[in-house]
Each structure stands twice: as structure tokens, then as C-alpha cells.
Amino acid sequence: MNDPTLIGPCADYEHDLLDLHDGALAPGRVGIVRNHLGHCARCQSWLAEFTVIDARLAGELPRPQLSAGFDARLRERLASLQRAPARGELRVRVERERETLLGALQSAARRRAVLGAIGGAMATLCVLAAARGLLASGSVAVPQGVEGVERLIALGAVGAAIAVATLAWSAARYGVGALGLQR
Amino acid sequence: MDDGIEPLLAAGRHARAFDLVVPAYKDRIFRLAFSILRERAAAEDATQETLVRVWKALPRFDGRAALGTWIYAITRNTCLMELRRRRPTVSFDDPDSTEAQHAAASVASGPAADPERDNLLRLVDTLPRNQQEAVRLFYLEDRSYDAVAEQLGLPLGTVKNLLHRARKRLMELARPDEVKAA
Q: Is residue A166 located within the same domain as residue A123?
């Protein structure tokens, strides 16, 4: 046993006294501790003091409760969280539709541009063929000094100019943006 | 406690399971949050935040830990995040070395005429943080060691030790000066 002049319980019983007070002492120890307590003034005094503190803690520590509107606020918050994904889903669907529409427009514009270019090329070939026929028949006056290779170069230049003009018209008509060069 | 919830979770009926989780756990989540945050409004906010997190994560709950253990871990994390938000410099790795130590020292060696010395709540505030949490929760949970151990995620022996040290310290702090001097 400890020196009786010291404050506090006997060291061997300190934890047991708390467990006894809290009802957590092993059944096999209860009798031993009660027997000690019966004839140890220090432990009796310390346990009495502890009982006072324990009662004060139990009585004076705040015991708050959830407010009455807690469940309603929780439900509201959960509902708002459930709505949020729905809004996101709608936005995704609209964007997907926009992409589809834009793709279809671009595809149609490309098709029209290619058809326009083919048409322009065909027209150029026809013009060149007609010019060649007219030159061969001599019904068209050719400037003096333009003969042989130079004549072919001149005709080629005219044909190329017509082809470039046709392509430019086609691109301007259906829009460069529609060809996917810009959104 | 979890009767009825676990089978619903196993069946993938998470919404129905959550409907049972709220009434079964909200008060204990609140008490745990209050023991950590020490403010009713903050504890209520943390309780709501915890339950929202549980609601989001319930489909991923794999049952490896008990449902209560999992929920209380979420609660503690939510509260620690709140404490970090308030004071980013507080260290939670060593709760005994925080401002609580300084507060305890100042009360223990403070002026003898301190009129609030016997104020028990103030004395509790001077304890190291982990002892404060254990003491508050212990009395909120009607002196249940098991409830405190489960909610704080600590072994039973650790909880007993924390409570023992805390209450012994409170006895010392609450003694009249003449007894201390003796």
C-alpha cells in the first residue's frame, strides 16, 4: 500500500476504482476492490472526490441536440444534389445535338463545294475544247507572232485562270468555314 | 443497430438503406462532431456534410469495415477538415502539443484569485484535445466506453486511459488551492 500521507488512491487500485465507478470492472475484481475500499481511507476519499467530478461532468457538460429542421435541410440538400446531375445531363445532350447538326452542315457544304469544283473543271475543259476547235478551224483571229508552243501556253493560261476562278467561286459560294477550316 | 441496413446495401438498394442510416446515426454523428468541434452549429453542419458524403459514397461501401466504423471515420474526417479550415496551422499529429498544453499550464499556474478557476467547462477546455474529445463524448454517450471507442476509432484500452488521465487531471485542477499546496 502507498504512503497514507500522499494525496490520491493506492496506485494498485487507481484504475480499478475508476472501472468500479464506471461499472466496467471485471466481475472477478469487484470483490477484491470493494474489500480494499472498505478499509482504505485514501481510496475512499479519492473515489468520493472522483464521484463529485464525474457527477459535475455529467451534469454540466453541454448536451446539445440537432435542431428540429435538420432532416428537412438534409433532404433539401440531397434533392439539390440530385437535380444538379440532371442539369449537367441536359447540357451534355444539347451540346451533342449541336455537334451532330454542325457535322451534318459541314458535310453537306463539303459535298456542294466538291461538286461545284468538278462542275467548274468540266466547264473549263469544255471551253478549252471549244477554243481548240475554233483555232483549228481558223475562225478566230490569233495575234501575229503567236504560234506553236506559245499558242498552247496562252490557251493553258486562259484555262488555268478559268479553273482557279471557278474554284474560288465555289469556295466563296459555300463558305470556307463550312469546309471545316473554322467553327 | 445496422439490422436492416446491411441487407439493403447487399441488395444494392442504397437509397432505401440511406433512409435507415439517417435516423439510426444522425444523433451519434452529431454528438461525435460536437465533441470535436465544440460548437452546436458547426457540429450540425458537419453532421449534414457527413450524411451527404455517406449518401454519395454508400454505393461504394464494400462492407470490409462495420458500417458504423465507416460512418464515424467520415465524420471525424469532416470535422478535421473543418478544424483545418478554421486554423490551417493546427497540427493534428500531436494533439497533446497544441495550444491546449499552454492553456493547461496557464490555468495550473495562473493567479490564485482567478474567479473562473472552478468553472468545470473551462477546465475541460484546458485538457489536450484528444482527452477533451473523449471526455465530452463519454458523457454525451451516457458513460459508454464502447461507444466512445467506436466513434473515435480507438482501442478500448486507449479510451479508458484517456478518460482516466483526463478526469484525474480535472480533479487536480478543481481542487482548492490549499489542498494542492498540501
A: yes
Among the ranges given (A39-48, A60-69, A172-181, B55-64), the one the predictor scored with the smallest mean pLDDT: A172-181
- Counting every residue written for chain B, the total comes to 182
Radius of gyration of chain B from its Cα atoms, rounded to whole angstroms: 19
- Co-location of A76 and A166 in the same domain: yes
DSSP result, B89-133: T--SS-GGGSHHHHHHHHHHTS-TT-TTTT-HHHHHHTS-HHHHH
Higher-confidence residue: A59 or A182?
A: A59
Tens of pLDDT, residue by residue over B24-36, are: 999 999 999 999 9
Highest mean pLDDT: which of A89-93, A175-179, B61-65?
B61-65
**Confidence (pTM):** 0.64
Q: What is the pLDDT of residues A149-178, one digit of tens each?
A: 676 677 778 778 877 787 777 777 765 555
Q: Report the candidate in A154, A121, A50, A97 with the shortest Cα–Cα distance to residue B163.
A: A50
Q: Domain check: are B100 and B57 in the same one?
A: no
* Dihedral pair phi/psi, residue A144, rounded to 5°: -60, 145
User: Which of B21, B28, B45, B121 to mutate to test binding with chain A, by most A CBs within 10 Å of its CB?
Assistant: B121
- Taking the C-alpha atoms of residue B63 and residue B67, their distance in angstroms, rounded to an integer, is 7
Domain, as residue range, for A122: 70-179
Out of A126-130, B33-37, B163-167, pick the least confident.
A126-130
The pLDDT of residue A132 is 72
Q: Do B50 and B116 reside in the same domain of the chain?
A: no
Q: Which of A24, A49, A66 sits opposite B44 (nearest CB)?
A: A66
Same domain, A52 and A82: no
More confident residue, A170 or A142: A170
Mutate: best of A20, A53, A63, A71, partner B, most B CBs <10 A: A53
What residues have CB less than 8 Å from B45, skipping those under 6 apart?
B82
Count structural domains, chain A.
2
Buried b / exposed e along A9-39 (16+ C-beta atoms within 10 A): bbeebbbbbbbbebeebeeeeeeebeebbee
